[in-house]
Write a structure and sequence with these properties.
This protein has about 130 residues and is mainly alpha-helical. The radius of gyration is 19 Å and the shape is elongated.
Amino acid sequence: MGSTQKKLGEAELEIMQVIWGSENPVTSNYILKELQEQRRWQLSTLMTSLTRLTDKGFISCDRSTGRNLYTSIISENDYKTGASKHFLEKLYNNSIQNMITALYSSKEIRRSDIQELRNFLDKLEEE
């Protein structure tokens, strides 16, 4: 997948999170209901986004039951890994150190976060 992974817009990501969050294939009405808190969408708006997500290769649509059932093709983990890599490459010259430095100097990361990160890295090394 690498850097060729297509990006999700904010609304598309919200739709994907609903699909990822469900164990079974979902209908467009199910997605519409799940998102009604954040989005005041008409069904037609959602259908346009679902078509786009299908074209981008994120989801597949099963029409065999007479109802459109949507399933994700790309797992949430794969997407996040690709997106994180892309984000690091683009914004921080592929350096996690640059990212941490930027967040720390802008006070987005507190000392407690650094300690948590240190503990996490220690655990990773032990495994």
